[in-house]
Amino acid sequence: SQTIHQWPATLVQPVGSPLSLECTVEGTSNPNLYWYRQAAGRGLQLLFYSVGIGQISSEVPQNLSASRPQDRQFILSSKKLLLSDSGFYLCAWKRPGLTLNEKLFFGSGTQLSVL
Amino acid sequence: GQQVMQIPQYQHVQEGEDFTTYCNSSTTLSNIQWYKQRPGGHPVFLIQLVKSGEVKKQKRLTFQFGEAKKNSSLHITATQTTDVGTYFCAGRDNAGNMLTFGGGTRLMVKP
Hints:
The complex is a heterodimer of chains A (115) and B (111).
Chain A: E1 3-7, E2 10-13, E3 19-26, E4 32-38, E5 44-52, E6 55-58, E7 65-70, E8 73-78, E9 87-94, E10 105-106, E11 110-114
Parallel strand pairs in A: 2-11
Antiparallel strand pairs in A: 1-3, 3-8, 4-5, 4-9, 5-6, 7-8, 9-10, 9-11
Chain B: E1 4-7, E2 10-14, E3 19-25, E4 29-37, E5 44-49, E6 55-58, E7 61-65, E8 71-76, E9 85-93, E10 100-101, E11 105-110
Parallel strand pairs in B: 2-11
Antiparallel strand pairs in B: 1-3, 3-8, 4-5, 4-9, 6-7, 7-8, 9-10, 9-11
């Protein structure tokens, strides 16, 4: 069966510090991978998605970047965090291909507080 | 771009009362999905609707997809404390692009 791992679960970082959040998927090949951010009490904002190694698409301009160095690994990074980067970050995956009818599987999330 | 609006943003109900959340898209959708996020948790897939006018049931939950495939609703009959959480709809447009999530409806149930 497929599983998704996301870490750390919580993170407190000072403004201006770097960030690295990691997400890995097991039990599937060539998944589509996503990074979402959820502000407190708000909806899900898509940040990045990837359909393959080294292929990253950004949905919104921001202080963050993403990389996919391996098939089942997705990393969210920042060189210098801003206060506005605080939020709940969720990694998700879906089965590959252009099928329209596939659900997302979410990781357990990382609560990031930038102080 | 595609927008998906969800109302209400919050809903308090007494245990046993019914609850409905509504989802409206600015564009016609190819399908719509519903997710539930428990407090402190991550979204979990509930169901997907594909056909115009489709209705699906999961125990006390009834999901509907509008005839024009631009709106959807989730109705919970006789809420229980275990229903507490935020319910999100997510629509995919006809071009098969990314899922666009609604802002979610946070349901609180008083025992």
